[in-house]
Write a structure and sequence with these properties.
By secondary structure, this protein is of the alpha+beta class. 23% of the residues lie in helices and 30% in strands. It contains 5 helices and 14 strands. It has helices at 16-23, 42-51, 102-118, 182-202, 212-218; strands spanning 32-39, 58-65, 68-69, 75-76, 83-90, 122-125, 129-132, 135-145, 148-156, 226-230, 236-244, 250-253, 258-261, 268-271. The strands form 3 sheets. The chain has a 7-stranded mixed beta sheet, sandwiched between helices. The chain has a 5-stranded antiparallel beta sheet with strand order 13-12-11-10-14, with no helix packed on it. It has a two-stranded antiparallel ribbon with strand order 3-4. Strand 7 and strand 8 form a beta hairpin. The longest helix has 21 residues, at 182-202.
Length: 273
């Protein structure tokens, strides 16, 4: 049965029923978890659902993603059931300027869940990557869909070295993580997102008051290091990443100037050490 969803016993399928039973309850942020065998892009499909009026708290999980996208339209793919590929739909009733913190909030939540369950030292590279050492474990992509925000993540769980999309990537199994079971990992990430999101919205999007900014800085792999920021038009600046401002923008100080950069301003951020 080469096409069976159970054909790779090392990569068992996720159970939509079990996930809904565990995560969807009265008062929960999560209103429904949908698991599909394959899809073009979880972000794209959930954005369409948002445009059609889907409510906050929808979660879309794909066992295989055929047209996965990262920042700036970069492609992303992985073998079926080898990672966690999912998107969430949020409708925060907060100023758009404050919503720049949402992908960072998502990163903090994911890093916290993985650190706790997998027992690996996950750090966050601004604006959207989870790292172990200098290698990429996961990427996050946030997109606006009318008055909603769709945020997706692709995390490498059981990919072997020969299956990695690029040499600078890694996976939980390569890092000898304590947990490589996707079900508890997904549950933990979603519960962490809900906790941070409730605190942040209760503080009216104030990342300082909600504790989000300090939580982000505690696991940042960028702030405090010299970085090379590649800009559009093949320009670049090198300086010290000094902080994250109240809108989630990266602050970089070079020898003669201070810069404040939004995610849309940059092509790449790399360490310059």
């Amino acid at each position: 049965m080469p096409d069976s969803r159970y054909s790779d016993l090392e990569r068992p399928p996720l159970s939509e029923t079990a996930l809904n039973r565990a995560l969807v309850r009265p008062g929960s942020l999560w209103t429904g978890v949908t698991v599909v065998e394959s899809i073009g892009s979880t972000n794209a499909d959930l954005a369409k659902a948002a445009a059609g009026g889907a409510g906050e708290g929808a979660v879309l999980v794909a066992e295989a993603q055929l047209a996965g996208r990262g920042r700036l339209g970069r492609s992303w793919s992985a073998p079926p059931r080898s990672g966690l590929t999912f998107s969430i739909l949020l409708r925060p009733a907060l100023p758009v300027a404050a919503q720049g913190w949402l992908p960072l909030l998502y990163g903090v939540a994911a890093a916290s869940a993985v650190r706790r369950l997998a027992e690996v030292d996950v750090r966050l590279k601004w604006p959207n990557d989870l790292l172990i050492g200098e290698r990429k474990l996961a990427g996050i992509l946030a997109e606006r869909a009318d008055d909603a925000v769709v945020i997706g993540m692709g995390m490498n769980v059981s990919l072997k070295p020969e299956e990695l999309p690029v040499e600078t990537a890694t996976s939980l199994i390569i890092e000898k993580a304590a947990c490589i079971d996707r079900d508890p990992l997904l549950r933990a990430v979603l519960r962490e997102i809900e906790s941070h999101y409730r605190d942040w919205t209760a503080a009216e999007g104030d990342a300082e008051a909600s504790g989000l900014r300090s939580a982000y800085l505690a696991v940042s792999a960028t702030v405090g290091r010299r970085v090379r920021v590649e800009l559009p038009n093949e320009q670049a600046l090198i300086g010290l990443a000094t902080g994250i401002d109240r809108f989630g923008h990266l602050q970089v100080e070079s020898e003669d100037e201070r810069y404040t950069l939004s995610a849309g301003d940059v092509v790449h951020v790399r360490t310059a050490e």
